[in-house]
Amino acid sequence: MITVRSQIHFMNKKISFAWLVMIFVTVTLVVAWPVQAAEYGGIGGRPVNSDPGIANSSSWFIYQLKPGESKQDAAEIQNNSAAAVDVLVYAADSIPSSDGGFALKQKVDTMTGVGSWVRFYPDPPPVPDSAPDKTVAGLCSPSADLKQLKLTLDQQAKLADWCPGTTLVELHLASLQRQLIPFVITIPDHVDVGEHSGGIVIQKKNPEAEPGSQSAVILTTRVGVRIYETVPGEIIRRLALTRFTVTKNPKLPEYTASVGIRNTGNVSIENISTITVTDAWHKHNTAYTRTMQALPGQELVINSAWPQPLFGHYRFQATVTYDDSGQKTLTTPAVELWIIPWRDLGFGVGALVIVIVGLVAWRLIYRRRSSGRGWVAYTVRPGEDLTTMAGWTGVSWQRLARVNTIRPPYVIKAGRKLRIPPSAKPPQQPGGSSRRPTTSPPATRQSKSPARKTLRK
């Protein structure tokens, strides 16, 4: 299994003046030379014996050899830079890249596939120039007739050392130099039917520090020319969906939708995956589409980041389309979820609770102040009104009216029972209090404020 963010096999380099020179040289070469080549960092390579009848054979080595068969071919190794360079050339197995595409193993990795089927022959065969057949098959196969070459014992020994070839070639290339490296690919006897891929890697021998970097990061520049070998037989093109999940990112305000795709066939399959997100009202539809290549037996996990909305009900679904004697579409079950801002909702509920508690507390205080709890009964005497009573009770006339449920026009008659504070001291005679109220009841349309009455002696 490989996720689309898991590995990095090739690193980019910052552009400096020297790199600009190399880019200029590379562009010049490409314009003058129509055959496409794999090129990066001033080094590159391409197939020498391309076949116009085979698509992409000018850029890749494409074979259809049977088990046990061998084929001699050659790669052109290029130095497109303005300086001499030392390079390593070797064959490697293919692996999925970080974005689900094509990548190659490192030199230190163990090769078990195509990378182990290739042998290089950088040096010419140690036979006389008059030899009619200088191919590996003509010189090294068990059926080769070497008697006519009349080799010396020393030449026979050198030929025996030359025939197995080598898995690693070291080259010193001058500026703009190109060199052909013959090689032989041999298909094992018991290899499975279907596609097997790898490549020939051209790698700078000396690692380079990142330009302008103070860290200890060392970059190795390399480029690969792909090899696709398809063993004849029943070709199966089939993909299967292995998973579809939607998870919340714990560090970012987003969700990650992941779809797993496994190539259960025996050839590489290019596929288009689409993850759609729709809300309940179909107002915010989103689609994430990617084109990937799945190698035989490979599982891809394609992740798409979806910004988290504030609220809503959303539906996630993925489709994968590929060519299998016609377009075929795979669809995942839908995943539905509610997006609820629990944190913001908690803050809102907390604020609402505080407001409600405040209102309830205010209401209780208001009711307590309006209830007149603990007040004592008092009989209104002639000449008294709310304003005069407010003066000697020490409370406002409004509170007296509220406690005793006196409504506008706030008129009270002598003999009425009212409640007043227990600490209030009625005057000796009605209206005789020296304390005057500071406010009066508001005037109404029905009557004016209660009139004060004075007793005549």
What can you see in these coordinates?
By secondary structure, this protein is of the alpha+beta class. The chain has three domains: 181 residues, Immunoglobulin-like (Sandwich), CATH 2.60.40; 102 residues, Intracellular proteinase inhibitor BsuPI (Immunoglobulin-like); 86 residues, LysM domain (Membrane-bound Lytic Murein Transglycosylase D, Chain A, Roll). It is 17% helix and 35% strand. The chain has six helices and 24 strands. A hairpin with a 2-residue loop joins β2 and β3. α5 packs across α6. The longest helix has 30 residues. The chain starts with a strand and ends in a 37-residue tail after the last strand.
Beta-strand fraction estimate: 35-45%
Share of helical residues: 10-25%
Uncertain regions: pLDDT < 50 for 5+ in a row? 1-35, 430-440, 443-457
CATH architecture of the largest domain: Sandwich
Major β-sheet annotation: 6 strands, mixed
Relevant terms:
single chain; 457 residues; alpha+beta; Immunoglobulin-like; Membrane-bound Lytic Murein Transglycosylase D, Chain A; 3 domains; rod-shaped
Question: Can you lay out the helices and strands and say which pair or pack?
Answer:
Layout lengths: L1 E2 L13 H16 L5 E3 L2 E5 L13 E3 L6 E10 L5 E12 L5 E3 L13 E3 L15 H5 L12 H10 L5 E6 L4 E9 L7 E11 L3 E2 L8 E2 L2 E10 L7 E10 L5 E10 L5 E11 L6 E9 L4 E9 L4 E12 L3 E5 L3 E5 L2 H30 L4 E4 L6 H8 L3 H7 L13 E4 L37
Parallel strand pairs: 1-19, 4-14
Antiparallel strand pairs: 2-3, 3-5, 5-10, 6-7, 6-9, 6-11, 8-10, 11-14, 12-13, 15-16, 16-19, 17-18, 17-20, 20-21, 20-22, 23-24
Helix pairs in contact: 5-6
